[in-house]
Amino acid sequence: MRVAELTPTALVDLTGAAIAPVWGANPLAGDPTGAARAIPGEGGPVIAWSGGLGPGLFERHPATWMPAGRDAWTRFLDAAEPELARRGGRLLVRPHARHVVSDVTAAASMLAGRDPARLGVALDPAACFEATMLPDAEDHLRRMFRVLGASAEVVILRSLPAAPAGGDGPGGPPLEPLPLGEGATDPALLGALVREYVGERTVVAVSGPDPAGQLAGAGLL
After folding, report:
1. Could you tell me the residue range of the domain that residue 123 belongs to?
2. How many separate domains does the chain show?
3. Domain CATH for 180
4. 131-170 pLDDT per residue, tens
C-alpha cells in the first residue's frame, strides 16, 4: 500500500513526489471532444469527477441520472478513450453523490463496460454521501469498501461531518467532508476497512493538514 496526500490539484506521496494530477472540471458541462482534450497530463493517471448537469459542479440536478446525463457521460467517455490512448493516460473517476457516477454501483458498472487500460476509479467514500445517509454511515461505508475497495486504484479517506451545513433538503448544499480526526467518522474504522478490502498496490490518500498524522491515526502509517 502506498500512502499519499490529495491536494486540490494533485495526488502526491508524502515526500511530495507527484502521482497524478487532479482535474477539477465538470466533463459534462460542454462539448465532449473539447472536454476530453482538456484532461490534464500527457500520460499516466488523472483523477477526475464524472460531473453532472446542474449549473454548478456540486449542484444536484435530476437530469444527471436520467437519459440526458447518462448520454452525456457516454459521449464524454467515447471522446476521452482515444485521447487517453494517444497520450498513454488513464482516467481515475472519483464518484460523487451529485454526479452521474454517484455511487459504487454506478462506478462498478462503468468499469465493467469500458477499457480498463483507460479507465479506473478513485474511491472517495465521503464524497458519495448525502445528508440522509449519515444515520447509517457505517453500513454505507462498509458496503462501499466491499463493492469497490479491491478494484479502486486510489482510495481517499475523509471524515463525514456530524451534521450537514444548511439542512438536508434536496436544495441543500453538498456535505463537506473533513480531515481524519475531525467530524463524525472514526479514523480507526476507515483504517480497518482499508486493511480488510483494499489491495496492496492501491494508493491510500488523505487530504488536509498533517497527512502523516491522519494516516497514523487510522493505523495506516
Report:
1. 2-217
2. 1
3. 3.20.20
4. 999 999 999 999 999 999 999 999 999 999 986 554 455 5
